[in-house]
Amino acid sequence: MDYCNDILNKLIDMYEKRGAYDKDASELRAIQIDVSKTYPAYADRYNHEAYRDINVAIERLVSDGFVFAAPDNFGQFTKVKLNVSRVPECYKRLKRLSIPAKCNHVMQVLQNYRDSNMPLMQNVLKHFRSLVEEYKKLPYDLGYDEKRIAEILMVIKAVLKLDKETYIRNFSTALFKDSKRFQREFKSIIESILFDYTDFVVKKDQILEFYNLYENPTYVLIKGDIRITFETSDINVREIPDGIALSNASLDKIKRITVNAGSVVTVENLTTYHDSDEQDAVHIYLGGYHNSAKQRLLEKIYSGSKSCKYFHKGDIDVYGYLILENLKSKTGIPFTALMMDVPTLERFYRAGIYKELTAHDVKIINAKKDTQLALYADVLDFMIANNCKVEQESIKAVELMSRI
After folding, report:
1. pTM of the prediction?
2. What's residue 200's pLDDT?
3. What is the DSSP-derived secondary structure letter of residue 356?
4. 238-277 residue pLDDT tens
5. CA torsion sign, 86 to 88 to 92 to 95?
6. What is the C-alpha radius of gyration for the chain, rounded to an integer number of angstroms?
7. Cβ atoms < 10 Å from Cβ of 112
8. I want to staple 354 with a disulfide (CB 3.0 to 4.6 A). Which of 3, 105, 379, 388 is the partner?
9. Dihedral sign computed on CA atoms, order 193, 194, 198, 201
10. Between the CA of residue 141 and those of 97, 152, 188, 192, what are the distances in Å?
């Protein structure tokens, strides 16, 4: 072992942990190591080689002026103290970048994206810059790793530019010429960053889909009395008991949609879609937040069937209502919540079929209840008062409880 470099690295690590690079040296407590505790072999009277090598290293560092240390009467060293005035030379000897130098490099990486017109990217950059200016490590295990930071920003920028359904492996191949690298090295951290900086409240496991990045092709499921007309053919969905599944790519090929039922019900969850049996209704499975293709489908339906009633059936939690409000806002369709009221929630609560709120749930409810979600304040108040939320699949579960 190179004890000279190892001792210096340990002392510089302590120097950095204390933020000493940004403080007056006269205000610092001694930055020092206990030799025997740091190197137990030094105190092993049978390990003469380690004792000799450590002593030689300390003597050399003292001679070079990097540390202060004095042997006792037996030639042993107890403490080794960093000479703070020689820290710049320590970094040079170790071929190691100081924290300020690392921060300068990181700041240069951030500056490369300063002209981005993407609000989310600007929010990320603003936060990262504020940390770097204070010599603090960046979150998400990025630290001061300029190469990793540059890669992450490049991937975020690419995700934010997606304007249609894109599959993760294709995305990964386009960026890295490796179909699996995104999932292997970037998926988790990109999900976390997008989740933390996205203004809309989206579940973390749906955040990539919110930005048009999918594992596999997604489908819209439709059932009920509705006729879908393509260029050379018609599909009368009423004749297919369980409905049909249309890929997002096929939705733009639809020329006309005729709803012969009195209402249209969009559904958040797949199981609920299959369970839904409201009479005189067309049911459409959206799966969380809708994307641009699904939005165009709904707009086509609404343009030709404005006399229908429009409902949305989702989870009775804060995300369910945010999805509903997003649906109303983006499509301009006057959707009304279906089975997302206090009596429905109370029914599940009394049956013991519910989940407790997370701290994040409570935070979002309190932040949105009086503004974006004011229409649902009574349900949100019940959630907070009883510490509960419910998934729509619970409807059939309550019915099953009475039979099993």
Report:
1. 0.74
2. 80
3. P
4. 999 889 998 877 888 899 999 999 999 999 888 888 888 8
5. positive
6. 31
7. 12
8. 388
9. negative
10. 18, 11, 12, 11
